[in-house]
Amino acid sequence: TASSEAALAITGLAKHFGGLKALDGVDLSVRRGAVHALIGPNGSGKTTFINVATGLYRPTAGTIRLAGQDLTTAPAHERTRRGLARTFQNIRVFRGMTVLENVMIGAERPGNDIAEQPALVVSRALAALDFVGLRADANRLVGTLSYGHQRYVEIARALAGNPHILLLDEPAAGLNMTEKHELGLLLRRLKGHGLTILIVDHDMNLVEQVADHITVLNFGRRIADGTPREVLTDPDVIAAYLGE
Ligand code: ADP
């Protein structure tokens, strides 16, 4: 079935805060190997979606399946263990530790194939740093890197855990134009390696560059779902963004 082939399959997801329906029956299925973007105007429910998908909040209704396994009520650490890796809108790295040490934390994630093998943890972390172009900075303190490069450290840490799916929460937030462009190139390289990515962003520019598939939220409901060409020419989507 379609849902067993999906890396992440979410059906009927709802989250109510009192009378407010922050999410109101959202379906979203991320195909394995796809770069899938979740977009929508401010207040449309994107952050709530991430918080429910990663286990910070319990959904009011709906199901969440990761690689075919039901994780609807699983705590956040269990989802990480099962291969749901994420980055944060406000970067979360250990600034007083080296770049390599930060990335090794990802490689050591419980549930990773190499978690208990120290030599492999180092080599997996170095490979992830190679991928994001920071291998030469492995022994620098993260706090000495530019904001854009700290974002890369966070992405490398997620990659080092060999995740089933990488969830990027507004990865372009706080980046300048050059850094955004570089991030777009990095995401394309990740895609070229077959990584499955769910990218949540407000900004359409990055999304247009990298997404195979886009889901659009507005007022907690899915208003469009399809290829970038289908979605970005959809009158409801254009109206939602103009109506901000
Ligand atoms: P987005 O990330 O797309 O900007 P959010 O998920 O942050 O949207 O917000 C969706 C709606 O849910 C908004 O109306 C917001 O005020 C509300 N909301 C989000 N989190 C909470 C919360 N913890 N308690 C009450 N209302 C919330």
Which fold name fills CATH's third level, the topology of one domain?
A: Rossmann fold
Biggest β-sheet, characterized? 6 strands, mixed
Which CATH class of one domain is shown? Alpha Beta
Principal-axes shape call: globular
Q: How many individual β-strands? A: 10
Strand order of the largest sheet: 6-7-8-3-9-10
Task: Please work out how many helical segments DSSP would assign.
Answer: 10
Question: What is the end-to-end distance?
Answer: 38 Å
* Portion in strands: 25-35%
CA-based gyration radius:
18 Å
Q: Please tell me the CATH architecture of one domain by its name.
A: 3-Layer(aba) Sandwich
> Which regions are unreliable across 5 or more consecutive residues at pLDDT < 50?
none
Decide which structural class fits the backbone. alpha/beta
Element pattern in H and E: HEEEHEEHEHHHEHEHEEHH
GO molecular function, one term: ATP binding
Main location: membrane
Protein name: ATP-binding cassette domain-containing protein
Keywords: ATP-binding, Cell membrane, Membrane, Nucleotide-binding, Transmembrane, Transmembrane helix
